[in-house]
């Protein structure tokens, strides 16, 4: 069900002196919270089993706060596949809520609100109503704009390279490139003409081992891009397939 609490939709919702957020239960989650509070009263132990990332940790923390859970009968568990063995292993290794992860999520949320709340109205007034600004996309847009300005201001200059292929006594081809580039085509042609009757000597050939790193694990966005490029899946299909693979234990979160 995702987050049960968030910053209020109206107003800043943050004390700008202490940066303390003022959370409220989301309107569409009030019924769920009421049901959970009733269930907590009947439960001996409450297991918080949200995702292991910072958003999941924050969800667990918000639940603990809103449901007024007691530490002695609340256990935080995580698992990466919805299988019997994975869940039993998680139950055997409970832990407490990781406050560092919670703080990381809160810092992200607070920054999102402060930047967005201040900048979005400027966009509405100067560009177009309905646009949004944030701590990531605002910076990303600036990087894109600066790069585009560099591209437009770039003045291309032609240069001419000279490459050669030499044969050793075993008739093995050895490719070589002149270190100097010529600014004019005529200069390159003159050099080639002068080189016609010149004897060249290969002084040294070095062979070095090469390495190729494995591809980085998928993020949500790179998974969606690859699924679109290869089998042609849309975002909805990709996420549905990924969810099934996760539930069956074939992939991690």
Can you describe this structure?
This protein is mostly helical. 45% of the residues lie in helices and 9% in strands. A two-stranded antiparallel sheet has the order 1-4. A hairpin with a 5-residue loop joins strand 7 and strand 8 (173-177). The longest helix has 28 residues, at 99-126. The model has no long low-confidence stretch (mean pLDDT 91).
Summarize the structure.
The chain has 253 residues and is mainly alpha-helical. The chain has helices spanning 30-42, 54-66, 84-92, 99-126, 137-153, 185-195, 220-229, 235-247, and strands spanning 5-6, 14-15, 20-21, 24-25, 46-48, 74-76, 163-167, 173-177.
What's the arrangement of secondary structure elements?
Blueprint: E1 5-6, E2 14-15, E3 20-21, E4 24-25, H1 30-42, E5 46-48, H2 54-66, E6 74-76, H3 84-92, H4 99-126, H5 137-153, E7 163-167, E8 173-177, H6 185-195, H7 220-229, H8 235-247
Parallel strand pairs: 5-6
Antiparallel strand pairs: 1-4, 2-3, 7-8
Helix pairs in contact: 2-4
């Amino acid at each position: 069900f995702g987050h049960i609490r968030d910053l209020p939709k109206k107003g800043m919702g943050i004390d700008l002196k202490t940066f303390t957020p003022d959370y409220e239960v989301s309107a569409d989650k009030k019924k769920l919270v009421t049901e959970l509070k009733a269930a907590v009263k009947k439960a001996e132990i409450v297991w918080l089993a949200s995702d292991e990332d910072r958003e999941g940790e924050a969800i667990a923390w918000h639940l603990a706060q809103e449901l007024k859970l007691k530490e002695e009968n609340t256990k935080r568990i995580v698992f990466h596949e919805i299988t019997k063995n994975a869940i039993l292993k998680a139950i055997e290794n409970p832990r407490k809520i990781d406050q560092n992860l919670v703080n990381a999520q809160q810092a992200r949320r607070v920054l999102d609100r402060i930047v967005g709340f201040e900048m979005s109205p400027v966009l509405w007034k100067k560009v177009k109503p309905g646009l949004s600004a944030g701590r990531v996309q605002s910076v990303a847009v600036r990087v894109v704009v600066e790069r585009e300005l560099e591209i437009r201001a770039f003045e291309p200059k032609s240069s001419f390279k000279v490459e050669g292929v030499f044969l050793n006594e075993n008739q093995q081809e050895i490719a070589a490139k002149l270190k100097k580039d010529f600014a004019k085509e005529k200069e390159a042609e003159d050099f080639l003409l002068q080189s016609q009757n010149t004897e060249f000597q290969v002084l040294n050939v070095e062979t070095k081992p090469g390495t190729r790193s494995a591809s980085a694990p998928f993020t949500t966005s790179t998974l969606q891009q690859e699924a679109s490029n290869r089998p042609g899946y849309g975002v909805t299909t990709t996420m549905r397939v990924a969810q099934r693979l996760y539930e069956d234990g074939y992939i991690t979160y």
